[in-house]
Design brief:
Elements (H helix, E strand, L loop, with lengths): L6 H21 L7 H13 L6 H13 L5 H19 L7 H11 L21 H8 L4 H13 L3 H4 L7 E2 L4 E6 L4 E6 L2 H13 L11 E2 L5 E2 L5 H12 L3 H14 L4 H8 L4 H9 L4 H4 L3
Antiparallel strand pairs: 1-2, 2-3, 4-5
Helix pairs in contact: 2-4, 3-4, 3-5, 7-9, 7-11
Keywords: DNA recombination, DNA-binding
Organism: Shouchella clausii (Alkalihalobacillus clausii)
Pfam families: Phage_integrase (PF00589)
């Protein structure tokens, strides 16, 4: 007589299969942030009549420095993107490609040469005078004013701004919870009274509920649609509204807080930076007002 297997046996096998399929699919996932770099590599291979692979990767990385003169951080991003692309698309195992990785390190060493010193210079984002900026934002329509103030005060990235929902605001506590995609964590950021009032006015005018997006979309006829817009659409919105980027606002807020006496730890609590070193290198190295006080 055939053995009768328990129901859980089949349920377990089904879950095992689903888990393996999930892991296989996840292992083949390529970050959307790599798409542009991968596309550029593909275009380079096509224009130079080279097949995609390790040799063309090394060639592209070399040309990126000696001919295209790309910054080191851009080069490193290209390297990461192409490695991921080749690993997923062509099953390249870079751990076993020791010679290739050694060649990569030699190419990277070009950045150590004197003639390439400008390529390793990290220039901070441009800041603007915060008081002048707030005055400009205060003249905007209700929706644009609320969004711009939230972006400025919270020093948020575009990917964070487009994901904020009305339920994330705590008006009683003067704060907003923002999911930091880069850190994969939630941060509670402080709001000033001007920003709280602006968001309340915006919410009231458009009759927004907790599940509605802060940014969303508004049509020419004034109709609001609760939708998570793309980061590119948000960048265009900011440029059209105030002529700046989210990173200009981020730099402005960081510099303003620092000039008022906030230490780096306090600033990172508001910006969500993972380290004070990153904050200082990318957002404070061209802020001269604090230095000028002591000259």
């Amino acid at each position: 007589m055939a053995e009768i297997l328990p129901v859980n046996h089949f349920k377990n096998r089904k879950r095992y299969t689903e888990r393996k399929h999930f892991i296989q699919e996840r292992s083949k996932k390529i970050s959307s942030g790599y798409k542009s770099d991968i596309k550029q590599y593909q275009v380079y291979c096509s224009s130079t009549a080279q097949p995609e692979g390790l040799e063309s990767m090394l060639d592209y990385l070399y040309v990126s420095i000696v001919e295209q003169r790309v910054k080191k951080n851009t080069w490193e991003k290209r390297l990461s993107a192409i490695k991921r692309y080749l690993a997923v698309t062509y099953d390249v195992d870079f751990e076993s490609e020791k010679a290739v990785l050694k060649d990569v390190s030699y190419i990277r060493s070009l950045y150590d040469d004197e003639e390439n010193k400008t390529l390793i210079r990290v220039k901070g984002k441009q800041r603007v005078d915060k008081d002048d900026l707030v005055s400009l934002i205060s003249t905007l329509p209700i929706r644009e004013k609320a969004i711009a103030l939230v972006n400025l005060v919270t020093a948020s990235r575009p990917s964070e701004m487009v994901a904020i929902k009305m339920r994330d605001f705590d008006f009683d506590d003067n704060s907003v919870s923002i999911y930091m995609k880069k850190q994969k964590a939630w941060f509670d950021k402080r709001l000033n009274q001007l920003t709280v009032k602006a968001v309340k006015d915006y919410k009231a005018k458009y009759n927004l509920n907790d599940d509605d997006y802060l940014v969303g979309r508004v049509y020419k006829n004034g109709r609001y649609e609760s939708v998570k817009v793309s980061t590119e659409a948000y960048r265009k919105f900011l440029n059209r509204t105030i002529g700046l980027t989210a990173y200009n606002l981020r730099k402005t807020q960081v510099s303003s807080m620092h000039e008022k006496g906030a230490d780096l730890v306090t600033i990172t609590k508001q910006t969500g930076h993972s380290s004070t070193q990153t904050l200082a290198e990318h957002y404070l190295n061209v802020s001269d007002k604090t230095v000028d006080k002591f000259l």
